[in-house]
């Protein structure tokens, strides 16, 4: 059993392997091991150990990538990409403008001069009538209905957080769907036309601008970006408003008796394109210009309206105050609507969708099947809302899917639950799809039967 | 000592055996480690996971926060520092009013399981319809209030686009989707085109770029009044608001795409045409070509195998799963006799304009040309292929993509704003400035491009 005769039985990676195993310690007494052999053996030992260690490190590097010895270059490149991307995103999301430093600062508004939306126009009704007569290819009635333009919008920069932009996108899809079904044009505004009237006041200059540029439009319908259509069948009964120029959701008793600051809601309202509307806009605007004017106006509004907290003047409170204080001048042409939800406060509606699905049907527009669900106070585009985030987003998702189901019905699909982004088939494909078109296309309902007002 | 216990002979034998197996054991260990590293071992995880766990554990105990490194992940620290104390409810709790760090996936849930398709059935978009032209003609006759032509040379067109129902992975992705849809809304309002924004995946088999096929078929069959369906990708923007598509040119065609005949039929180049923006007529021929187009789409093995065929057959195509564009090139190149006569490969104007060669020239275009040309002088569509603003990784640097998308958007938006007397302060700026003063006679003012009341929007005078 000399060590030399020990032959490897398994692996023959190295002929020296077996000699590693045969260390001198096994042969305890009586054998004299030559020194050279000993060194040779130790050397082989070490060789194998080093080899194994090397292979281990290689394998570990490949799998774990240990520390700095590993993919350090890839790490630094990655780090650079991350920093660069974060910088770009921060830049995009900030409010700063690349051209800002070069521009001189604009002069402040003189608080003694009343702010105006533009030069006073006196004869708009006549001008418009003349224009319509000479431009018969742009009539103010299309398919028997007055031409409506839906105006909505959002700020030009990204929201403070990404979920806000996602819900803006869903809200605009919701509006596109309703307007496609009902033949309404949409203008999505992302520009601040007037630096002074920023924020919720930005709608005023845009409404005026659109009225004057589009005389063929009969009604301009402003809708907030956080309002969703939830009744895709209901149509506004415009014939009811033949003698009125402003249609707004609210409660007359809250308005005149209690002077409440939420008596009306300016999140969804219609303005007729006429001189009266231009005049009202001019009377409405003065509380708007930001800065000391808006702050002072805010104080007046808080003092005069019930329940209003102290903050700068907002367009809704200003309109309420205007209509209360100049009642005789304006109110005969204002229709305060509450027979259907031209604006529907979300908190009382969103939990009842299942009940509505069970008991009622689209086309009612009122508390049984709300026309519009308006998420006041949720402010998903900002950092903070007035309500818990989860409640807001959950409700918005439900409202969106509730409405989307009415659109998808024509195509034979439905969401898998009011909180699910996925859809499922509710009607099999067929080789005669047109029977369902007649049955389920909302536009055909309106042609065959006039809606009740 | 052991010797004395077991006896010298046995001890020696044991040692020998031990020696022999040492090598085996080392090799076995190495194999296991390598296999774990490459394949992973299920719930036992990979060495990398081990390492991360150990590191986190150690770091946790040493009280340092490891910052996760992910490209394009949300940056919270500076925002939460700026916030005031009203978020003391703590992140993640159900009562927080703060939108930062809120995970939407905690809300979304499916109430029904996914349908499992039958693997043995060959894929089809739907039951075969053979008489669509007749069905549709009858329907149109019975429904004169929904004509398929809204003007003498103007067919009823539906522009279809869409995006995922879930929020983008990129924090600014949804913002760019919003700007993109606003851009499309503007163009379509001017040109009397209807818009359909899709956020539903109709068929889980055809996910990704193939999702448009079931959608297009469904829309064609549900809207017989539509004469042309215009598909447009979400990353394509209109940059010429005044250009009206020359509909009479396509009187005898059913499928209009941007591309070049030589590149598709002769070269079989995979970018010989582009399916990011195309027109499809509502007719039997279109249903047939959709049926022929679909088979390479179903995800999984079918798509992978098809991808290999396409890479082999088409020029310059990289290796990846089958996409709808390559499949269309292949279909047309191999079945030219069947489809070619009704396919129009348009290149006289940019029905699809590759952004790389266009975006740097906007200033030059503004100086030398005017809207309404639609071609290389003033492109109709600037298509940001490869940018993928909604995802985490695109094929191009993030900065170039996003900044250029802003510029393209503003370039198009300027043509809309000029109707109302405004323009962006620069192509990179979100702010606008007045370029035309308000007047007390607004109806006498005409906008430069004549987009307020353009000819292509005029209704037939006889209609009521």
What is the CA–CA distance across the termini of chain B?
112 Å
The overall average pLDDT of chain B, rounded, is 85
Rough shape of chain B?
globular
Helix/strand/pairing class of chain B, anyone?
alpha/beta
Q: Rg of chain B, please?
A: 30 Å
Question: Structural class of the helices, strands and pairings of chain A?
Answer: alpha/beta
Major beta sheet summary of chain B: 6 strands, mixed
Tally of helical runs of chain B: 14
Main β-sheet, spatial strand arrangement of chain A: 4-3-5-8-7-9
Beta-strand residue percentage of chain A: 5-15%
**Multimer state:** heterodimer
Residue runs with pLDDT of under 50 for 5 or more positions of chain A: 1-30, 67-71, 448-453
The global form of chain A is: elongated
Q: What are the secondary-structure elements of chain A, in order, as H or E?
A: HHHHEEEHEHEEEHEHHHHEHEHEEHH
What is the string of SSEs of chain B from the N terminus onward? HHHHHEEEHEHEEEHEHHHHEHEHEE
Tell me the total number of β-strands of chain B.
12
Distance between the termini of chain A: 111 Å
Question: Quick recap of the structure?
Answer:
The complex is a heterodimer of chains A (453) and B (464). Chain A is an alpha/beta fold.
Folded structure, characterized:
The complex is a heterodimer of chains A (453) and B (464). Chain A has 453 residues and is an alpha/beta fold. Chain A has helices spanning 17-21, 35-63, 72-93, 124-134, 162-182, 203-213, 252-257, 275-284, 292-304, 315-325, 327-330, 353-359, 389-408, 434-440, 442-448; strands spanning 141-142, 145-146, 148-153, 185-189, 219-223, 227-229, 246-250, 264-272, 334-337, 372-374, 413-415, 423-425. A six-stranded mixed β-sheet of chain A has the order 4-3-5-8-7-9, sandwiched between helices. In chain A, strands 1-2 form a two-stranded antiparallel ribbon. In chain A, helix 5 links the parallel strand 3 (148-153) and strand 4. In chain A, helix 5 packs parallel to helix 13. Chain A is elongated and about 125 Å long. Chain B has 464 residues and is α/β, with parallel strands linked by helices. The longest helix of chain B has 31 residues, at 8-38. Chain B is globular and about 115 Å long. At the A-B interface, helix 1, helix 2, helix 3, helix 4 and strand 1 of A face helix 2, helix 3, helix 5, helix 6 and strand 4 of B.
């Amino acid at each position: 059993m000399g060590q030399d005769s020990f032959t490897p039985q398994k692996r023959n990676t190295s002929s020296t392997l077996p000699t590693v195993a045969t260390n001198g310690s096994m042969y305890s007494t009586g054998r004299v091991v030559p020194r050279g052999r000993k060194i040779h053996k130790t050397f082989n030992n070490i060789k194998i150990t080093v080899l194994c260690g090397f292979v281990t490190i290689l394998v570990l590097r490949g799998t774990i990538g240990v520390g700095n010895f590993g993919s350090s270059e890839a790490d630094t490149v990655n780090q650079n990409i991350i920093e660069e991307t974060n910088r770009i995103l921060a830049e995009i999301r900030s409010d700063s403008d690349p051209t800002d430093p070069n521009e001189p600062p604009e002069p402040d508004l003189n608080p003694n001069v009343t702010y105006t939306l533009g030069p006073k126009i006196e004869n708009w009704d006549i001008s418009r009538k003349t224009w319509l007569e000479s431009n018969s290819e742009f009539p103010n009635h299309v398919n028997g209905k007055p031409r409506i333009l839906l105006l909505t919008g959002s700020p030009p920069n990204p929201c403070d957080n990404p979920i806000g932009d996602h819900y803006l996108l869903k809200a605009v899809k919701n509006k596109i769907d309703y307007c496609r079904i009902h033949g309404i044009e949409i203008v999505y505004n992302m520009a601040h036309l007037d630096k002074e009237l920023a924020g919720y006041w930005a709608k005023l200059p845009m409404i005026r601008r659109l009225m004057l540029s589009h005389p063929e439009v009969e009604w301009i319908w402003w809708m907030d970006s956080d309002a969703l259509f939830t009744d895709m069948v209901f149509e506004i009964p415009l014939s009811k408003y033949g003698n009125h120029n402003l249609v707004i959701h609210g409660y007359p008793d809250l308005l005149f008796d209690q002077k409440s600051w939420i008596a009306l809601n300016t999140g969804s309202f219609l303005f007729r394109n006429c001189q009266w509307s231009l005049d009202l806009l001019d009377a409405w605007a003065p509380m708007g210009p930001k800065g000391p004017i808006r702050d002072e106006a805010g104080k007046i509004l808080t003092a005069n309206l019930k329940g209003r907290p102290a903050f700068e003047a907002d367009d809704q409170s200003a309109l309420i105050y205007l209509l209360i204080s100049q009642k005789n001048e304006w109110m005969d042409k204002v229709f305060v609507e509450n027979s259907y939800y031209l604006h529907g406060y979300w908190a009382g509606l969103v939990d009842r969708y299942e009940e509505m699905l069970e008991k009622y049907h689209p086309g009612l527009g009122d508390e049984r099947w709300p026309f519009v669900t308006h998420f006041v106070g949720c402010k998903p585009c900002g950092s903070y809302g007035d309500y818990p985030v989860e409640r807001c987003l959950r409700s918005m998702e439900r409202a969106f899917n509730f409405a989307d189901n009415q659109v998808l019905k024509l195509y034979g699909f439905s969401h898998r639950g009011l909180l699910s982004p996925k859809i499922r088939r509710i009607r099999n494909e067929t080789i005669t799809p047109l029977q369902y078109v007649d049955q389920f296309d909302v536009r055909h309902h309106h042609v065959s039967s006039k809606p009740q007002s | 000592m052991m010797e004395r216990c077991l006896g010298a002979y046995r001890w020696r034998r044991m040692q020998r055996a031990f020696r022999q197996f040492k090598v085996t054991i080392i090799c076995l260990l190495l194999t296991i480690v390598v296999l774990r590293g490459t394949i992973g071992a299920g719930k036992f995880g990979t060495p990398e996971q081990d390492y991360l766990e150990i590191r986190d554990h150690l770091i946790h105990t040493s009280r340092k926060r490891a910052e996760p490194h992910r490209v394009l992940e949300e940056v919270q620290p500076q925002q939460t520092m700026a916030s005031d104390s009203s978020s003391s409810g703590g992140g993640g709790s159900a009562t927080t009013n703060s939108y930062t760090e809120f995970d939407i996936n905690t809300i979304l849930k499916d109430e029904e399981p996914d349908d499992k398709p039958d693997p043995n059935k060959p894929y089809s978009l739907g039951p075969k319809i053979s008489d669509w032209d007749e069905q549709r003609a009858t329907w149109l006759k019975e429904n004169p209030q929904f004509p398929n032509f809204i003007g003498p040379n103007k067919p009823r067109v539906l522009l279809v686009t869409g995006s995922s129902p879930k929020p983008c992975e990129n924090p600014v992705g949804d913002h760019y989707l919003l700007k993109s849809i606003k851009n499309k809304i503007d163009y379509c309002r001017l040109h009397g085109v209807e818009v359909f924004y899709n956020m539903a995946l109709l068929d889980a088999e055809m996910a990704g770029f193939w999702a448009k096929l079931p959608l297009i078929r469904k829309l064609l069959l549900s809207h017989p009044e539509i004469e042309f369906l215009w598909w447009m990708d979400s990353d394509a923007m209109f940059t010429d608001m005044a250009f009206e598509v020359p509909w009479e040119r396509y009187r005898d065609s059913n499928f209009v795409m941007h591309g070049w005949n030589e590149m598709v039929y002769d070269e079989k180049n995979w970018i010989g045409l582009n399916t990011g923006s195309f027109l499809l007529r509502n007719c039997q021929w279109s249903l047939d070509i959709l049926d022929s187009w679909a088979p390479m789409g179903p995800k999984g093995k079918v798509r992978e195998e098809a991808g290999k065929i396409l890479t082999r057959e088409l020029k310059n195509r990289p290796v990846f799963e089958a996409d709808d564009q390559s499949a269309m090139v292949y279909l047309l190149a191999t079945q030219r006799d069947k489809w070619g006569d009704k396919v129009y490969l348009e290149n006289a104007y940019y029905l699809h304009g590759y952004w790389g060669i266009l975006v740097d020239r906007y200033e030059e275009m503004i100086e030398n040309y005017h809207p309404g040309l639609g071609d290389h002088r003033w492109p109709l569509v600037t298509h940001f292929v490869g940018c993928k603003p909604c995802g985490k990784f695109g094929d191009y640097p993030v900065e170039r993509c996003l900044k250029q998308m802003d510029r393209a958007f503003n370039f198009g938006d300027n043509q809309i704003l000029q109707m109302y007397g405004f323009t962006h302060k620069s192509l990179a700026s979100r702010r606008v400035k007045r370029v035309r003063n308000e007047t007390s006679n607004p109806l006498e003012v005409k906008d430069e491009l004549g987009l307020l009341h353009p000819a292509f929007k005029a209704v037939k005078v006889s209609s009521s």
